[in-house]
Amino acid sequence: MITDLITKLYQDNNLSKDELVYLLENLDASSRKLLFEYSLKTKLQHYGKKVYMRGLIEFSNYCKQDCLYCGIRVSNKHIHRYRLTFDEILQCCTEGYQLGYRTFVLQSGEDYWYTEEKLVAIVEKIKELFPDAAVTLSIGERDQAVYQRLFEAGADRFLLRHETASRDLYEKLHPTMDFNNRRNSLKLLKEIGYQVGAGFMVGLPHQTSADLAEDLLFLKDLNPDMIGIGPFIPHSETPLGDVIGGTLEDTLVMVALARLMLPSALLPSTTALGTLDDKGREQAILAGANVVMPNLSPTKVRPLYELYENKICTGDEPAHCRGCIEGRINSTGMEVDMGRGDSLQFQHKVGQTV
């Protein structure tokens, strides 16, 4: 039964909620092996051996939200806050461009000190200096008008994890946020024309197999360009600091299922997986992931962008990060691609050849 379901998913790219729940609750070592074989095969069929490198710039750890699991939540008074200046952000991009990166991911907490005008100026300058590079924003929820202006300024992509498709779980974990607004923001971003990334965490307190099935079905319906899936890793300065976190194994299963349900999506192999296991990122690549995001942030601030504890690679210079990650990718039999790495559905929409 379980192998039949995995084969059906590989062939049809879809399962019902009941089928997904059954699969999640009955996987064993041999069926997981089959799942990973099919997910890797699907990635190779759609993207070949390419793994895309993005340059990540974590430009502020201020956040107005108070999510129960996050180390930079507004209630954490024991964190040293920082903001990169306009020039520091451009310096990170310049160094990244010289290292070969053609996508810059600008990520922060929900920090409204960076006004619409400041963000527009940053995006416009990056696109002026590096017109062949893509700009990805990961800055949380803003008004529709702000999203629109940033797109018009040249931003290409927007990452906004839906976090969980369970309203109940979302409301428990995000006391300062609104479930409907999160979903509506994702729809707005798609309508404006961004390449959109959504995603969720695995191993959250009280998360069920049914919740995870709903995450996959929500993503199937949204059809985003990118899906970020990572394990929940507790942070001691949060209300969930003493809770048991998610596992590498469970997260890899969700990465593989996402690859099979949305074959043309881009799937990152996250730093959090490398935090759980030294070979975690490699295992994710072999389960169907095809994006990595080495850090271009100044080394002085990297330890401060602490969504979770024990984050790896906080002291490495950008050149070392790039070399290290490239070696890890090559060890899996895959190949580094330093280009923009647009999603297949975007390529098809604009008539690019894959």
Task: Estimate percent helicity.
Answer: 40-55%
Helix segment count?
14
CATH C-level name:
Alpha Beta
Strand order of the largest sheet: 2-3-4-5-6-7
CATH topology: TIM Barrel
Order of helices and strands: HHHEEHEHEHEHHEHEHHHEHEH
Which strand-content bin applies to the residues?
5-15%
Using the CA coordinates, give the radius of gyration: 19 Å
Gap between N and C termini: 36 Å
Oligomeric form:
single chain
Low-confidence stretches: none
Number of domains: 1
Instruction: Give the biggest beta sheet.
Output: 6 strands, parallel
What is the residue-mean pLDDT, rounded to a whole number? 96
In CATH, what is the homologous superfamily?
Aldolase class I
Number of strands: 9
Structural class: alpha/beta
CATH architecture title: Alpha-Beta Barrel
What general form does the structure show?
globular
Description:
The protein has one domain: Alpha-Beta Barrel (TIM Barrel). The chain is 45% helix and 12% strand. The protein has helices at 2-12, 17-26, 29-47, 86-98, 116-129, 144-153, 167-173, 179-192, 209-222, 248-261, 271-276, 280-285, 318-331, 344-350; strands at residues 50-53, 55-60, 103-108, 134-138, 157-159, 195-202, 226-231, 291-292, 335-337. Strand 3, helix 5 (116-129) and strand 4 form a beta-alpha-beta unit. Helix 3 (29-47) packs across helix 10 and helix 9 runs parallel beside helix 10. The model has no long low-confidence stretch (mean pLDDT 96).
Please tag this protein with its features.
45% helix; globular; alpha/beta; 3-stranded parallel sheet; 9 strands; 6-stranded parallel sheet; TIM Barrel; iron; 14 helices
